[in-house]
Each structure stands twice: as structure tokens, then as C-alpha cells.
Amino acid sequence: MKSFTKFLLLSSVIFNLSSLQAQPDRWQQRIKYNINVNMDVLTNRFSGTEKIEYINNSPDTLDRIFIHLYWNAFQPNSSMDVRSRETGKTILTNRRGDEVPDWDSRVKDRISKLNENEIGFQNVKSVKINGVEQKLRNYETILEVKLDKAILPKSKTIMDIVFEAQVPIQIRRSGRDNAEGVRYSMSQWYPKVVEYDYQGWNANPYIAREFYGVWGDYDVNITIDKKYFVAAGGDLLNANDIGLGYETAGMKPKPVTGNSITWKWQAYNVHDFVWAADTTYKMITRTVKDGPLIRVVYKKTDSISDARWQHCADTAALAYPFIAKTYGPYPYKTYTFIQGGDGGMEYPMACLVKSGSIGTFVHEWMHSWYQGMFGTNESLYPWMDEGFTNYAGMRVVCDFRKIPSTIYDNEYKSYFNLARSGMEEPLTTHSDHYNTNYAYTSAAYSKGALFLNQLGYIVGDQMLDKILLEYYRLWKFKHPNPNDFIRVAEKQSGIELQWYKEYWVNSTKTIDYAVGDINVVNGKTQVTIKRIGKMPMPIEVLMTFKDGTKELHYIPLNLMYGEKAAEDTVPRIVHTEWRWTHPEYNFETGRSIRDIKSIEIDPSQRMADINRNNNKLVIPD
User: Fold this and answer.
1) Pairing mode, strands 596-601 and 539-545
2) Most buried among 311, 397, 545, 592, by the most CB within 10 A?
């Protein structure tokens, strides 16, 4: 009996361990920031303190910590400066045939020309743990803190940081006095602890793009001249003291005594915090049923611009039900669109947008899902943020404008141009290490968007929607990687998809299929399809007959070990799998060769076939 009891206990333990291992989860570090800053609007400098609680949930002992000091990039001869000027030496030809430097037009060589009062800097004066100063070593935009006592696994430590900073002239994302006259766009503005994950420290110097952060809680107190209106990615705790539209209806804020006021912000379960300030900001709000309070903060210049911002606010509110239904509900109480920065830049609970553009509004808000809520490592997988956001944002626009999804045509064209350019690099390339800005942009945004749109071709669009919702359910707030997404897609669809990731993400191999010969074999019509490109795919072939009827011939790829469900009412014939090693495939139809009007590969054109000229054969009468 004792042996049997032990067996039951052991079985229970094994079952519970198996259940835990089956959960799509992994350890994550955790952090709490308590930040206090005092902004001097005359010198554009501020001093600050941080009390940081760092929780080491990893199995590793940490003998050092790395901290981002992003604004040190905005100094002549910085890595960002030199990198930008070097990429500018590559000359590309644009659509008009003009030769143009391959640099970010917002940066160019501007950093090299900054004066002392225009540069940015972040200087950490001290880091103390238990009152003991830690040894510091500065690597430009990365600060190494060598710990006097290591942080043990499953333990936490408290750090006290004293720092000072100068806000740079607005060049990239953050800074002061942008083109629209916004005084302060405060992103990447505080010493931020580098993410430590299952791959180790992600101490990426600030070269050009993309961010990655630790999930945590922020309490931020900003003291600034009382003339300034502050907007931020968070909730304002002293709204009734501040007023300016933040206060509870019916409350009357007390007059401010003194020249400054402290704004007390809070944001929980986020991986970054952004704010902006200007003396002429105006705020409008929209309430969304079962959704967040939407705030739009902008500089009013005239009635036309005011109407544009109002329209964008209305559109965001109207779009939310489709967003929540398709990609999952927004989990925070507020979301704020803030005019500032140099275009559009996403942060948890807020974004900086240059102007009132609906496309920018939707795109940046969708980043709240694929950057804000998932927190994927953008440096390693920028396409999982920019590409997924591009795909999702365009679907949102299509929905509320009631237009067909041919809006993706531009993404296909962008990818095709990249694939033919000779400059394409795999999506596995680190975002800062692409050889050209052109290759990065086309890959991360366009090829990344096509990853999803083409996945809809492989598993079916309805199945793709189920995958996206399950991905949201399982992986929000967990820093998913490409394989995490693929596993969700496989489990939902019942189709193996590792081959798709390997070809589309890890290589630059292209898709090219062609209609081959049509013959009569043993009295039956036989069609040959040729694979010319090196990337294999499942194939759909639509046969249209002279009497107006149609047949869809579906040929699964053998690596799928399954097949997608029919997507429409056209009669479908499912054939045996096409083995990826074979360059040609033959299939038969029961119809006479004389009946055929046309044969077309991938009539939906969701497959990124780089030469669609050989996809369709029209047989003359």
C-alpha cells in the first residue's frame, strides 16, 4: 500500500511538472522605478533620482548590471553619429531615378554639428546599494555597474541612483524644439536598466533603432515650470490638483503657488515611460465603451489642424471595437496620443506623433499590442513589432474605411523590390546591424507584415485570426520570440510551420512558381506546375472553364503534415503533398483540355511570388 501511495505521489508530481512545463512561459526579471526629476526650462537640463527595486527571477547570480544612457548618443563623434554618416556614403536610386544617400533623413549628419548647449547627455553621478557606492564604467550609451555583492537568484536588491541630463535638440525620437515647435519630447530620458533574459544581458548601444525593456512599475514625479502642460504614458495621480482637463468632472483645482508644479504619474506593468511638455498643448478626450479613455494632446495652430486632430481622435475611438475583437482588448485605463518627436514613435500607454495623420495614429496605437503588450526584443526581432503592427494597422484601416485588403499591395511591392535589389538580409539580422537603412526598413516593415498575410494563405485567414487572439492570450507581457509565435500557430492550425519560419525569417530565399505544360495523359488532362524559386510553399491553382465553372486544386507542402480548410465555396480538390525536394508537380483534372479557359497559381495573390507573370496561363479560344 505504501508503494502504491508513493507511486501516486510520484505520478502527481510528474503530472504537475509536465503541466507547468507545458505552459508557454519563462522566467522574467521584474523592476520598480521611483523617479523624481526637476526640469530647468531655461537651461534644458534636469537633475533626478531613482530608487529602483530590481528582482532577479533568473536562475543566475548577477555580479553586474547594465544601464542604458540613451541621450549620450546625441554628441558629435558618437556611435550613432558616425554610423549615420557612414550609411550616408551608400548611394541608392529612388523611384524617380534620383541618387540619394542611404541615411535616415531625420539624422543625416546633424549630430556632428551640435554645439555644447545642443547636445544630449545623461550622467549618472552615483549608484548606491545599501548605502555603498558601486563601481561604474561608462561605455557611451551603456553604463556598467560592477556590484560589490552579487544579486543571487530569486532575490531582489534596491539601487539608489543620482543623475543629471541635458535634453538634446530634437534629432531622433526625443529632444527639444521639434519641427512643429513642441518644447520637450521626453523619450529614453532616464537611466534605464538593461533587460536580462534567457539569452543574457541585452546591452545594445544606442545606434539607431529599436528598444527592449524589463516589465515593471513606474512612479514618476516631474517638477516643471507651472506654465507647462505635461502629457505622459501613464495615469496622473494628482489630476485634481493639476486640472487642465485631467481633473474629475466638477472639481476645481487650487491656484498654484510658486513657479513650478509637480506632476505625479504612475504606470504599472509596462516596460518604459514617456512624457512630453509644452506651454501651448491642448487636450481632447474620447470615451470608448469597454475600452480606454483616449487622450489626444497637441499644439493648436489653426482651425484646420484642430479639426484634423479631432478627426483622428474620433477615428481611434471608432476603430477600437475591431481592434479588441481581432487582436485582444487593451488592458490599461488610458491611452494618449501626444504631438511630439520626429514622426511616430510608440511607448507603453502613449505615443509621440508628428502630426494628425490617421495612418500614423492607427499604426502607433497598434504598437500598443505588438510592442507595448508583448514587449518582444525589437533589436533581435524588429519584424515582430514593426511588421506585425504594419499588418494589423492596415487591417484596421481597411475595416473602418470599408476598403478591400489590396492595401497590402504596397507591402508586396516593397518586398519584391528588396528581394530583387541584391541588398536583402535575413530577418534574423540585428536591427542595428543591417548594412543599409533601406534593407532594414523594407525587411522589418514590409517583409514582416507579409509574414502574417502570407501565413493567412498557408493556414487560412480565419485560422490566422484565431492564432492572433491565442497569441495575445498566451504571450502578452512575456517577451515572446519567433518560435513562441510559431508554436501558437502550429497548435491552433494543426499544421507544422517550422519550415515557414526557417525560409521566410532565417533566409533570403524567394518564392517563384510557374504554370508549366498541359498535356493529355491516359485520356486525362494533366497540368504541370514548376517551382523555380528556392522557397517551397503549398500551392493553390484555380482552373476556370469556358462554361464559367471553376475548380480550385490545392496541393499541400509535405513539410506541413496537414492541410488548411477550404476558404470559399469554389469546389476544391485536395491533392497529395508536394515534396519540397521536387522541382515539378503534376496533377489531373477530370475536365477536357478543350474546356479550359485559364489556369492561375495563387488567385488570392497572398503568396509573395516574386514573378507573377508566369503564374497565369490564359488559353485562347
Assistant:
1) antiparallel
2) 397
